[in-house]
Hints:
This protein is α+β, with helices and mostly antiparallel strands and 117 residues long. Helices cover 17% and strands 25% of the residues. Helix 1 links the parallel strand 1 and strand 2 (42-47). InterPro entries: Transposase_IS66_Orf2. This is IS66 family insertion sequence element accessory protein TnpB.
Amino acid sequence: MLTAPAGLMIYVATRPVDFRKGADGLALLAKETLGHDPMKGVAVVFRAKRADRVKIVVWDGSGLVLYWKRLEGSAFKWPPVVDGVMRMNAAQLSALLAGMDWTRMHAPRILQPKALA
């Protein structure tokens, strides 16, 4: 199980990429095409044409890390295919990697306490 550290910015490339690319190729693609450099402390999530594969590129402070996962007998829930990038939080990333519908994950509203009379 991959857990994202607190405060990590996570971006999803919404268009499928060539999954023959390795960590360096994906990092360069993220920087030049999406405008987000994994070497600067962000994680970039890439999808394959088949919805059952995901790759994540992130700098962990000592080197570039490539996380790769294939779901067996299922598919990841992906946003619509469009050009661009979208943000995701750590809870949504965990749900995505577990094969769950991450679009249903959201932070609960925090209500302001009422003043005591």
